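Reviewer comment 2.1 asked that we show a complete input and output for one of the modelled complexes. We chose the adenosine-5'-triphosphate case, as it is the one discussed in the main text.
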Amino acid sequence: MGEPVDRPALRASALRELLLHPAGPLGRLEVVERAESTNTELAAALTREPDAWRGVGMVVADHQAGGRGRAGRSWQTPPRAALTLSISVWPTAQDQRSIGWLPLLTGLGAVRALRATAGVDAGLKWPNDLLVLGAAATEGDALDGWGTDRKVGGVLSELVPTAAGPAAVLGIGINVSQTADELPVPSATSLALAGAKDLDREVLVVALVTALAELKARWSTAGGDAVASGLADEVQAVCRTLGRRVRVALPGGGELVGTARRLDGAGALVVRDDAGTERTVLAGDVLHVRGAEPVGPGQRP
Ligand SMILES: Nc1ncnc2c1ncn2[C@@H]1O[C@H](COP(=O)(O)OP(=O)(O)OP(=O)(O)O)[C@@H](O)[C@H]1O
Ligand SMILES: O=C(O)CCCC[C@@H]1SC[C@@H]2NC(=O)N[C@@H]21
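Response of the prediction step:
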């Protein structure tokens, strides 16, 4: 390991000033020094006192000690080196029918914020990964079977039943200033490693919340219809999974190998298998998505 890195604490007062004023995007903001998981913490707060969290709420942690990913996997970040936050929204009954788009739209907001503030070329890996494109020198040290893209963050979207109806908790983790030896997996990267050395986490938080507020407004105007709002196309445009040969691990040990073609109206992934049959997979039913090498010229799509 290298020398310990001295990292600035999040400036809670700056965040409150920028995000919590009457015309601001948030109704409630908690900045905490340490959380096990901001998703768990926000879900508990929503359950405890839903009325105090009406509108859009956010918990952001300077240090997250027990971050969670999908399917019980862990999300690990050193103190103050990453952005670890969760945002709560209250989906309408109509929104709940297209709930599969929530993590994808959250990812789209994150991609926009990364491009605007870190100047990196960012994209999504369906269903929940944030990538920096071309971050690896060779395919061998990138995400498995994924060209030279590396993972810089992820989204964990959870529905929380409360006395005031279901709330959605959208957790976002972004590696900001980690050095290479502070990353838990070799296929990961941080914004600093990708070239954005002096990025303030506050700047990134504000860009992220602003991008999400804009997407939420468009979503609501279109009655929660991702296709009619044009947001489905915008997600697909940044989704690096489409057009790629993938190996999708399913619960129970099954596997689907084929070419990712598009996202359907519910945000599910449509894969054409090597027999030419299209199969649709929901994010909640997928354990992992990995790149798959072409199986041979005769079998390519
Ligand atoms: N700070 C981090 N940066 C990058 N990757 C991380 C970090 N912390 C944990 N991980 C990796 O991310 C995984 C959690 O992400 P997730 O649950 O999305 O799995 P995944 O391997 O990315 O699967 P999928 O392909 O389905 O997205 C962990 O198992 C670990 O490998
Ligand atoms: O890649 C993934 O699986 C998603 C990782 C999501 C991590 C974020 S960090 C903030 C929020 N709190 C958590 O415990 N997880 C999410």
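The mean pLDDT is 93. We note this here for comparison with the apo prediction described in Section 3.2.
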